[in-house]
Design a protein that fits this description.
The protein is an all-alpha fold. The protein contains 1 helix and no strands. It has one helix at about 20-40. The longest helix is centred in the middle third of the chain and has 23 residues, at about 20-40. The model has no long low-confidence stretch (mean pLDDT about 75).
Length: about 55
Amino acid sequence: MEPLDIPAENAPVTLRSPAFDEALEDVEDTLRAIEEGSRRGPVRTSLAPPRRIVG
């Protein structure tokens, strides 16, 4: 079977959902914060409350 020759204007289009765009934006924001924080010090990236170290 020969491969299909599909012109670019008829190629399949991938649609992104608003939820995907929102998740992608969150990831980009997190990566930006990590990058900026690496210059200033540690950045908290977890949603969990910070643990107290008792010792």
